[in-house]
Specification:
Layout: H1 2-17, H2 32-36, H3 48-58, H4 81-93, H5 104-120, E1 128-132, H6 135-150, H7 154-158, E2 166-170, H8 176-184, E3 192-194, H9 205-217, E4 221-228, H10 240-249, E5 253-257, E6 282-285, H11 287-291, E7 298-302, H12 306-312, H13 343-378, E8 382-389, E9 392-397, H14 402-416, E10 422-426, E11 429-435, H15 443-460
Parallel strand pairs: 2-3, 2-4, 4-5, 5-6
Antiparallel strand pairs: 1-7, 6-7, 8-9, 9-11, 10-11
Helix pairs in contact: 4-13, 5-13, 6-8, 6-12, 9-10, 13-15, 14-15
The structure holds pyridoxal-5'-phosphate (PLP).
Pyridoxal-5'-phosphate binds at residues 75, 134-136, 175, 177, 231-232, 257, 259-260, 286, 298.
Length: 461
């Protein structure tokens, strides 16, 4: 296999180097790829030559290229070269990182990398934490902890039937993973209270206080508050400090979702957007988005992990490590038992880039987005619908033509393939999202994107 491994590495280099020549969004039709795959697995081994040839024939054309420098859609899922190298090693090692003794280096490096991340983002060193697969899992873990705290840990033992009706609080700008967590935790989507926002789309602290008070008076039991920093739609942030004060006053557990924008906290100038976050109980940031750690890698910082461990730990006999009472077993902090060795790619990434390298890249993205947004605002026929928040802004072309025109422009841009953008809904209108954040994006790529947008918008009339 060694030669094939080398070939895979060479293929990866050539793939990354040639991305500008490929359309960003996959240009296949639904069912094309399924039709290219046999209905049943082979009965007998096949030569690697044949497998490789089919890989080259079928896979690249079915990819939307997330590592493409002209990927301006969703949020980035950056795979920095150093983190890819670490992932090769992790794949070869094939360790399970569920307990300290199942690979002490995975656990102890994870503890150290969580501390490095806290330092990188300007959080106090007292924060501990765990590397989860995704922000959805971190938020789910936090919501389960909210539930159990509010129920005096009776939910896990007895189930939820006949218990009090719990309430969670978040703004409309929070990611759908918050609602999903409410659903999966058995709290119910209807008990996720959407707190009104201010003119900048941030949660209004006094509205949060009023909602909690009204629920208490109405016989509900408030369980927790979920705040967002850099929401997915337009990048909005709640006023973290003021909302945390309200939550503290009410004795509620708090979770801050900074899945995307948390990476920007490597830049001290961005930290005003989450001022007060050091008072949260739980914070999630995805190094697998903007920071550069190959997916999956989501850090959940915890002011005190005791409550989450009490909520999630299972300790059957076969998982005991005799003679080691004080070690960390990270599977007690997470919903899953099996865990990947995620710390290695962070270790490689931090060392290969340095904080300075990570900071410069993200600061550039924010600067380029800011400059492009100014051009969009100044261009006749275009409307800047939300200002750059971190490195995301939204816009429309010919607003008088309505949502159908915005959707047609997005489709035309993505069918063209030179760039990739997606949409969101802002106050009932469809707007086009543009975020700068892909690892290899240059200032010239951003300028090129603007040329493409004007060209295609002009063609649509
Ligand atoms: N929170 C925010 C703000 C997000 O933007 C996203 C995804 O884009 C998520 C949570 C979910 O992230 P994950 O895919 O890691 O679960």
């Amino acid at each position: 296999m060694t030669d094939w491994n080398r070939r895979a590495v060479d293929w990866g280099h050539a793939y990354r180097a040639g991305l500008r020549e490929r359309p960003v969004r996959a240009q296949v039709q639904p069912g094309d790829i399924r039709a290219a795959l046999p209905e049943h697995p082979p009965e007998h081994p096949e030569p690697m030559d044949a497998i490789w040839a089919d890989f080259e024939r079928i896979v690249p054309s079915g990819l939307t290229h997330w590592q493409h420098p002209r990927f301006f859609a969703y949020f980035p899922a950056n795979a920095a070269p150093s983190s890819i190298l670490a992932e090769h090693l992790v794949a070869e090692i094939g360790a399970q990182a569920m307990l300290w003794q199942t690979s002490p280096v995975a656990t102890e490096m994870e503890e150290r990398m969580v501390a490095w991340l806290a330092h990188a983002f300007g959080l106090p060193p007292r924060f501990r934490g765990v590397l989860q697969d995704t922000a959805s899992t971190a938020t789910f873990s936090a919501v389960l902890t909210m539930r159990e705290r509010a129920l005096g840990w009776a939910g896990n033992a007895e189930g939820l039937a006949g218990g009090p009706r719990l309430r969670l609080y978040a703004s409309e700008q929070t990611h759908s993973s918050v609602e999903k967590a409410a659903v999966m935790a058995g709290i119910g989507a209807a008990n996720l209270v959407r707190v009104p926002t201010d003119a900048k789309w941030g949660m209004r602290p006094e509205a949060l206080a009023a909602a909690i008070e009204m629920d208490r008076a109405g016989g509900y039991r408030p369980a927790g508050v979920i705040l967002c920093v850099g929401g997915t739609g337009i990048g909005a942030s709640d006023p973290i400090g003021a909302c945390l004060d309200v939550a503290a006053q009410a004795g509620l557990y708090t979770h801050v979702d900074a899945a995307w924008a948390g990476a920007a906290m490597v830049c001290p100038e961005a930290r005003a957007h989450w001022a007060g976050a050091e008072r949260a109980d739980s914070i999630v940031v995805n190094p697998h988005k903007w920071l550069g750690a190959q997916f999956d890698c989501s850090v959940q910082f915890l002011a005190d992990p005791t409550d989450q461990i009490r909520t999630l730990a299972m300790r059957p006999d076969y998982l005991h490590t005799p003679g080691h009472a004080e070690i960390t077993n990270f599977s007690e902090w997470t919903p899953q038992l099996g865990r990947r060795f995620r710390a290695l790619k962070l270790w490689f990434l931090f060392r290969a880039e340095g904080l300075e390298g990570l900071r410069t890249r993200i600061a550039n993205h924010m600067r380029w987005a800011e400059a492009l947004a100014e051009q969009v605002a100044a261009e006749p026929g275009f409307e800047l619908t939300t200002p750059p928040m971190f490195s995301l802004f939204t816009f429309r072309h010919r607003p008088e033509r309505g949502d159908a025109h915005s959707l047609a422009l997005i489709e035309a841009l993505n069918d063209d393939g030179r760039i990739y953008v997606t949409q969101t809904t802002l106050e009932g209108r469809t707007v086009i999202r543009f975020q700068v954040g892909q690892w290899d994006t240059t200032e010239a790529d951003v300028a090129f994107a603007w040329d493409v947008i004007r060209e295609i918008a002009g063609r649509l009339g």
